[in-house]
Amino acid sequence: MSVATVGPVRVVGTGLLGASVGLALAQHGVDVQLEDPSRTALALARDVGAGTPADASSPAPALVVVAAPPDVTADVVAASLAAHPQAVVTDVASVKGYVLAELRAAGADLTRYVGSHPMAGRERSGPSAAVPGLFVGRPWVITDSGESGEDAVLAVRHLAVDVGAVPVVMDTDEHDAAVAVVSHVPQLASSLVAARLRAADDDALALAGQGLRDVTRLAASDPALWTSILAANAAAVRDVLVALREDLDVVLGALDLAAAATGPEDVELGALATIARAIADGGAGAARIPGKHGGAHKRYTVVTVLVPDRPGELARLLGDVGAAGVNLEDLQLEHAAGRPVGMASISVLPGRAEHLETELTARGWRLVS
Ligand SMILES: NC(=O)C1=CN([C@@H]2O[C@H](COP(=O)(O)OP(=O)(O)OC[C@H]3O[C@@H](n4cnc5c(N)ncnc54)[C@H](O)[C@@H]3O)[C@@H](O)[C@H]2O)C=CC1
Ligand SMILES: O=C(O)C(=O)Cc1ccc(O)cc1
């Protein structure tokens, strides 16, 4: 594939995001220069194939991508604008208003600067977690300050498309409010729920299943990075948290009434409906999350199969799904605690589930209904 991005591209901050950008561009033959104050992060990024460490003899970059923590981003962008007077400079920080306000206050040349934010990441940090496909199919928000030059916006749009992302133009404040609700509060909620587990008994933890893993996946994120993100987007995050606190208070009130009753018929009128509404409202919110490829969220039917814990069994199962002519939309694996068996939950289009169940049963698989 030929790319529109004109190199050299200088990546400043060669952690997860920076090294992933470098890897994706280097794969297309773009000349990628690397820069990071951590010599280890720099050498690791080079080792994974993200580009070549920059030095005094490096040619002037046409585009600089700043992928440093949010609290230093504005300083690094300002320094890059000054060091590379011909280059367009973008950053990938998770918060945009804070960075723009600092650059304005510093009197930076905003015509060559375009803020951006790829909505793709992982709960791991550093160049060793980098992958070239990180951005494929993901939105890449471009926040034009109103002062960015047309060519500068186009260069960042090309970057987004060349690494496989989908450019989305947004106003800075609109972006910060959006990520507060879809990314920053979910991170906090995941961390807070997971923190409750510190005091749980081992016996209680042994009962944990996929639901808990789903809710706590983000809890493994880097505390330093997230402190920097949350502090930089404090006002927008706070607005969502206050609404969440009100929801928690409503549920707590209803649970207090349920706890005081001797049975369901005795619970004060409306309290059970309040609890049911909390769950239903969650379902309605989750149903609004677009599907993997940006379309409306599809509802799949899940067929759950017991898989013996032996080499090759999962491959055999997937082969049988294919032989049944059914497309696998998603797959989740769970280990039954203390038993030599796993459970594979196979998501398929609703119209295909019955056929798959018949075919798998005929091939000797045990289904969990
Ligand atoms: N982790 C994620 O999932 C996502 C992160 N982002 C944003 O990307 C940026 C980078 O995050 P990650 O790559 O995850 O972090 P990371 O911790 O993997 O990498 C950050 C890198 O920046 C370097 N750095 C620190 N101070 C610097 C400075 N003054 N100048 C240049 N480099 C400096 C560090 O040495 C490190 O190598 C952050 O602004 C973050 O908000 C955006 C989307 C997703
Ligand atoms: O892992 C996930 O689901 C994420 O949402 C990752 C992520 C983390 C931080 C960002 O600014 C953008 C995306």
UniProtKB/TrEMBL annotation:
Residues 302-369 form the ACT domain. It is an enzyme of class 1 (oxidoreductase). Residues 7-291 form the Prephenate/arogenate dehydrogenase domain. Keywords: Amino-acid biosynthesis, Aromatic amino acid biosynthesis, NAD, Oxidoreductase, Tyrosine biosynthesis. GO terms for molecular function: prephenate dehydrogenase (NAD+) activity. It catalyses: prephenate + NAD(+) = 3-(4-hydroxyphenyl)pyruvate + CO2 + NADH. It comes from the Bacteria. Its EC number is 1.3.1.12. InterPro entries: 6-PGluconate_DH-like_C_sf, ACT-like_dom_sf, ACT_dom, NAD(P)-bd_dom_sf, PDH_C, PDH_N, Preph/Arog_dehydrog, Prephen_DH. Pathway: Amino-acid biosynthesis; L-tyrosine biosynthesis; (4-hydroxyphenyl)pyruvate from prephenate (NAD(+) route): step 1/1. This is Prephenate dehydrogenase. Belongs to the prephenate/arogenate dehydrogenase family. PROSITE patterns: ACT (PS51671), PDH_ADH (PS51176).
